[in-house]
Amino acid sequence: MRAAVLAAPATMELQQVPLPEPGRGQVRVKLEGCGVCASNVEPFEGQPWSQFPGEPGGMGHEGWGAVDALGPDVTEVAIGDRVAMLSGKSYAEFDVASVDALVKLPAALAGQPFPGEPLGCAFNIFRRTDVQAGQTVAIVGIGFLGAVLTRLATEAGARVIAISRRQSSLDLARHYGAAETIVMDDHWRILEDVKRLTDGTGCERVIECVGKQWPLDLAGELVREGGRLVIAGYHQDGPRQVNMQMWNWKGIDIASAHERDPAVNLRGLREAVEAVASGRLDPTPLYTHRYALDRLDEALFATRDKPDGFVKALVTFGEPA
Predict the structure, then answer these.
(1) pTM of the full predicted structure?
(2) 192 and 91 within one domain
(3) How far apart are CA 10 and CA 6, in angstroms?
């Protein structure tokens, strides 16, 4: 099969590698596509602990496709079933996943792309927010994750204040239900805008979706006394400092909302499949850019640089799914 290999910093190579074989309790999936995650950018560019070359298909963890082969004792799915899976080498034409780490895609999703891992991640993060009807929720950073969380919070009856750098992102937040939008350009003006919108009290819930120091600082200041700060951004490029005096004084709850329990991840994936299949959530506007596998490096650079209108890149195989 063909697989993308991270050969050196910012250098992807397309290689012919052996087809993986499913073991006991596993299936092989012929991939239709794989979403490109912002968490790929730092490993792609190279970190001090990086080793090269990477594994074939490595970093790809948002795959979907059709079951191609069954390992011993697998009865839960059949060859030809379309699935979204939680696996880690999906920048390739085939990947192997445990049968208890995938969800069958219903007929309502036929022909649609389904990068299940980030959709499931959004549902798991939202559960950790404990958003209640009538609350004001600030979402700092409107990309794929922030947009889905905007929809979920609005659906729960909250008033969402979306804060992001680009006008296209703020327009997207409005599409998903945000009541207010604020350009993320000046720290102190943002604080004043949120105070004005909340009668000076701040927000009951603030969700940080960027994964950088300044948005985390900003998010901490926007939480009202006794509120909850939810860290949904993936902070992987080094240590962070926080204003613990302020956090202590305000008595806020902190939720670091990236789940690692496989059962929780699978629950989020199931919830995402149900929500999209039922029409509760339409992620179609979020899939803004598509690339063939041999253009994965371009997809990663776009994920880093975010050209106008960019939200999420999909790598697709053959005809776009």
Answers:
(1) 0.95
(2) no
(3) 8
pLDDT digits (tens, 9 = 90+) for 56-85: 999 999 999 999 999 999 999 999 999 999
From the CB of residue 179, how many other CB atoms can be counted at a distance below 10 Å?
16
Helix axes 167-175, 144-155, angle to 10 degrees: 30
Predicted confidence at residue 321, as pLDDT, reads 38
The Cα 93–Cα 57 span in angstroms is 8
**Cβ 300 vs Cβ 312: under 8 Å:** no
Q: Which CATH number goes with the domain that contains 129?
A: 3.90.180.10
Which residues are CB-neighbours of 20 under 8 A, at least 6 positions away?
28, 89, 94, 95, 96
| Lowest-pLDDT choice from 41-45, 87-91, 195-199 | 41-45
Looking at the structure, tell me whether residues 171 and 290 fall in a common domain: no
What's the rounded mean pLDDT across residues 124-151? 98
Question: Measured on CA atoms in the order 9, 10, 15, 21, is the torsion positive or negative?
Answer: positive
